[in-house]
Amino acid sequence: MLPAEDGNIEYKLKLVNPSQYRFEHLVTQMKWRLQEGRGEAVYQIGVEDNGLLVGLAEEEMRASLKTLHRMAEKVGADITVLREREVDYDSDMPRKITEVLVRKVPDNQQFLDLRVAVLGNVDSGKSTLLGVLTQGELDNGRGRARLNLFRHLHEIQSGRTSSISFEILGFNSKGEVVNYSDSRTAEEICESSSKMITFIDLAGHHKYLHTTIFGLTSYCPDCALLLVSANTGIAGTTREHLGLALALKVPFFVVVSKVDLCAKTTVERTVRQLERVLKQPGCHKVPMLVISEDDAVTAAQQFAQSPNVTPIFTLSSVSGESLDLLKVFLNILPPLTNSKEQEELMQQLTEFQVDEIYTVPEVGTVVGGTLSSGICREGDQLVVGPTDDGCFLELRVCSIQRNRSACRVLRAGQAATLALGDFDRALLRKGMVMVSPEMNPTICSVFEAEIVLLFHATTFRRGFQVTVHVGNVRQTAVVEKIHAKDKLRTGEKAVVRFRFLKHPEYLKVGAKLLFREGVTKGIGHVTDVQAIAAGEAQANVGF
């Protein structure tokens, strides 16, 4: 595949003793590639600009790597050799290609950040895998590794996740894992990592499906990890979670766990079943089984370039088999949004989605969520709403924390917790937004959306009530009108007018929408919002 002019992969034939002018040019080029990859770039040495694999003799390769090292030092980056390959070229001398990862934490942030949602059926081993990755010790086969991840007593007793928990895994600039082993605290992990993976551990049980949908829609993960147990295959909520990831266009990779429990033939059967499902017309994915470190490097690069590539890992949290391949993949995986998109978002007005609300002793009210646009600093004056009567209230951001360590400035796309001092917690709820006062936010009780009905037992008609998810908004709405039709059946498309039952919400045209009620499910996007003034809000809600 040819390298794009933009992107973070650079092909170089050789870098032997460049002149001063050429060296400066190469350094500028490296800065550009690092900016494109938001702090990460991959150099392939021994490859022509057109992608032809030529390879270099050992002496030239050593000189090229030395030059690359000097370039990286000049921009303040670190380099790690990912892999070396021998090429068959018309010569007697062995010739090699070397792939090098260059990583530099941007000056304006502490670390590179990647959010990964963890999906999969109940009992497939999601919390256990995260426990093993983040604690650095293997499981005992009876769930010891996951105990640190649970947030409620009933989760520890049943071994089932019912809430959303966040776990962090760091990589330093040399690509080594930084986690809670050696009894590090979260702050120490943040300080010694140049790249942080935040895992969003979602619930697998059908009873908690609404929590899983909320995690996928409001926390804006970069990608998802779908966990499938080798001994059960695609069972229970796995198909549903797969469908959610596809509907919300979240790129995902698959991990087949518990391979130590079953025979090799069973693992192969599960992988074949997965490949068959991923190739179906609805998915259109290209499965890629990862069995070596070389595969893991290729998988990370292909996954970032094409959302259709779906890497499949087979591993065990008990024996630790192939666990290193997943770590290699996560270490190399570049940010999936490009720098231009983030720059554009940062130039817009501040908008922070409220997903969690806590009261912390001696700090006061704290909200957790994601900054969807703009920049947020300590001391900023924002407005939060809409309240039940459609008003927005003034507040001040006292302090900001990212991944449990203090942070001065928050940028678009980053998740954080904001301390609001003595602001009354009772006035806040999930689904609110905190925005710049000059934004003059519009709120609505009635909105229209173009939807596709994925599944419904009978017909979907006027008066039907569903739970609507749009970003961090989750509320019951009633169907007021289906344009140009009386009713909808499974698989049909239409523009539908919904009305929220309880209170108005802040919605944007174009936002992805997901709704459910029992077995009924549908997806779509908001096409029109009927804006209302704050005073009229109460009269417009309900029937």
From TrEMBL:
Keywords, alphabetical: GTP-binding, Nucleotide-binding
Classification via PROSITE patterns: G_TR_2 (PS51722)
MF GO annotations: GTP binding; GTPase activity; translation elongation factor activity
Coiled-coil region list: none
Residue span(s) of domain Tr-type G: 111-339
Family, per entry: Belongs to the TRAFAC class translation factor GTPase superfamily. Classic translation factor GTPase family. EF-Tu/EF-1A subfamily.
Protein known as: GTP-binding protein 2
